[in-house]
Amino acid sequence: MTPSKFRFIAAAILCAAALDTWAQGAPIYQSVPAALPPNVPSLGYQATQTAEFGDLIEFGGTGRALGNVTLVMSDWALASTYGAATPTWNHPVTFNLYNVDNSGPAPAPGSLIATQTHTFAMPWRPEADPTCAGGTAWRAGDGNCYNGYAFTITFDFTGTTVPDRIIYGVAYDTETWGGTPIGASGPYNSLNFGLAQVAPSTGSNPFPDTAYWNTQTPGNYADGGAAGVGVFRRDTSWTPYSGAITFALSPPAPALQSVVSRKVHGAAGTFDLPLSAAALNPTTEPRMGPAQTLVFAFDKPIQSATVTVTEGTAAASAPTFSGNNVSVDLTGVANQQYVTVSLSNVASTDGGTGGSGAIRVGFLLADVNQTRVVSVADLALVNAQLAQFVNATNFILDVNASGTLSVADKGLANASLTTALPAP
After folding, report:
1. What SS3 class is residue 6?
2. Closest CA to 334 of 290, 375, 297
3. Long-range CB contacts (< 8 A, 24+ apart) of 100-104?
4. How far is CA 178 from CA 52, 53, 171, 189, 245, in A?
5. What is the pLDDT of residues 242-277, one digit of tens each?
6. Is the distance from CB of 349 to CB of 300 less than 8 angstroms?
């Protein structure tokens, strides 16, 4: 790094801060440590006459369906300087994703893949502690004094697919610099983009000594501005610094794991009948309707879904959610039929979308041996358990779901003799 770059970067100090708690998938580029150390530098846009700053990076792994992009910012602005009574101030930041143009002697920003501009709530830097040297820094919980307060902002690029290598740029306006300079002093003059000093833990920097920079000051560039100023272009002599940033994949869609038919058997408790996922070999539910409950279990907690009955006579309630489970109450379920219930637009609490699942169930009262026809064999099974307590091994024989195995169950089986389901 050149001495001039060192001077304007070393002045910016970051304090420890946690990452945003946005849901995200696996990182494909990660240069933000889990715990941000106190003395990570940052780049001040007003101080360095910057409009845009970024880097050329290469993603790790194979997934390229982008989700969240999280970057570290550092705020040096104090609320007392601006007479503010609120804990934050608002400012728009733009994040650009570019293809890499390799047609020239050095990689350059190519066509724009995607761009987003969002207004973020920026936290004020804590007020100065007079016990810190110079009396202008604040004292953090680790007992040390810092000039900047680090935090993260997150862009959601779900739906954007990226190539293996991209150039990114972070842009925002300050008083006299940026795409549209604001023309007045404000806390944005003290807003910096955080820099990492170590190689990324995921992904890589193919050209670790470079950065991409739009600054109006010729002397900021390693070539003294020979290749132009005020354009977003390659610069060198940046070792060991790079943007403190994380690119994460979109969380995977929720995946259906299993489905059960659930009934409460009076005081005996709740018992689940596992259902076959094979549509051409569906499980038969022999317990009495017309109200039934199906519980779909996914691989992670679910927050929303759409339910549809696509076969048979039944009405589905709005689904309810409990952890990984989606419960669907059915009413008006006719006997001697197949019912298919489908879930679509299943979304998980980690941000995964596009999940789906379906189950086909045969409903035939008293078909306790699940042969799709009620016969004397079913009657004999119920008769053999009369007066027994309902438990996990015999609940399927409690066809009226009363919680006791009684002559009422035997009567239902007897009355259902010869009823059958059609071939699935």
Report:
1. helix
2. 290
3. 100/56, 100/163, 100/165, 100/166, 100/167
4. 7, 11, 7, 11, 21
5. 999 999 999 889 999 999 999 999 999 999 999 999
6. yes
Angle at 333 between CA 327 and CA 336, to 5 degrees: 125
Given a contact cutoff of 8 angstroms between Cβ atoms, the answer to whether 50 and 213 are in contact is yes
pLDDT in tens, 348-366: 998 888 999 999 999 999 9
C-beta of residue 247 within 8 angstroms of C-beta of residue 203: yes
Residue 61 structure tokens: 């792994």
Residue range(s) in the chain whose domain bears CATH number 2.60.40.1220: 256-415
The tokens describing 239, both together, are 């070792």
DSSP 8-class letter at 202: B
Q: How far apart are the first and last CA of the chain?
A: 72
- Sign of the CA dihedral with 282 first, then 287, 291, and 293 last: negative
Residues 6 or more apart whose CB falls under 8 angstroms from that of 393 comprise: none
Contact 36, 164 (CB under 8 A): no
Q: Give me the phi and psi of 352, to 5 degrees please.
A: -65, 140
- Separation of alpha carbons 262 and 358, rounded Å: 16
Q: Beta strands 65-75 and 245-249: pairing type?
A: antiparallel
Return d(Cα 189, Cα 27) in angstroms, integer. Answer: 31
Give 188-240 pLDDT, tens digit per residue.
Answer: 999 999 999 899 999 999 999 999 999 999 999 999 999 999 999 999 999 99
Give the closest residue to 211 by CA, choosing from 41, 397, 37: 41
Q: What's the residue count for the chain? A: 424
Q: In whole angstroms, what is the distance from residue 157 CA to residue 36 CA?
A: 24
| Edge-to-edge strand ranges of the sheet holding 88-101 | 108-123, 88-101, 165-171, 50-58, 211-215, 233-235
Query: Which helix (H) or strand (E) segment is 410 a member of?
Result: helix 407-415
Place of tokens 């009396």: 135
pTM over cut 0.85: no
Any idea which residue has 């972070």 for tokens? 170
Spatial contact of 136 and 129, defined as CB atoms under 8 Å apart:
no
Q: Phi and psi of 285, rounded to 5°?
A: -95, 110
Written as six digits, the tokens of 20 are 């945003």
Say which residues have a Cβ less than 8 Å from residue 221's Cβ, sequence separation at least 6.
213, 215, 227, 229, 235
Which architecture, in CATH terms, is 256-415? Sandwich (2.60)
